[in-house]
Write a structure and sequence with these properties.
With about 140 residues, the chain is α/β, with parallel strands linked by helices. The chain has a domain at about 20-115: D-Maltodextrin-Binding Protein, domain 2 (3-Layer(aba) Sandwich). The protein has helices at about 40, 75-85, 95-100, 130-140; strands at about 10-20, 20-25, 45-50, 70, 90, 105-110, 115-120.
Length: about 140
Amino acid sequence: MVRRALDDRRFDSAIVGLERRLCAMASDDPLARRRSVRLADIGGRTLLIDRRTGTTTTQLWPPDSRPATKDIHDVDDWLTAISIGRCAGMTAESTAHQYPRPGIVHRPVRDAEPIAVRLAWWRDEPHPSTQAAIELLTTLYGTG
């Protein structure tokens, strides 16, 4: 399961679902009191970006309102920097469930496109149940 398009020709993939895009912020951030945020709310902040595995780029914002960015290379460092209030992050909804952290809240970004969730497999050696897995996951994600 991946949340970025694969540019490696050794793999094939299929979109099986969509996840909401969330903003991660310190729990004492003024935006944390809101139920959801907009891209414009985040535009004036420093956004942590994981260029290797992350799903967010500044291309989500219009060119004249893109946030400042800081590169990060590890989810634990990402969470730590967010929890102390220095930066914000954008991520797939699954991150909030897989990496709960005291001091961090996640709010839906209501005007951001959702993130495609893909099932990937070796192009030259697909498993005989690949199509069945795609169908099951698509049903579970509610996109089928």
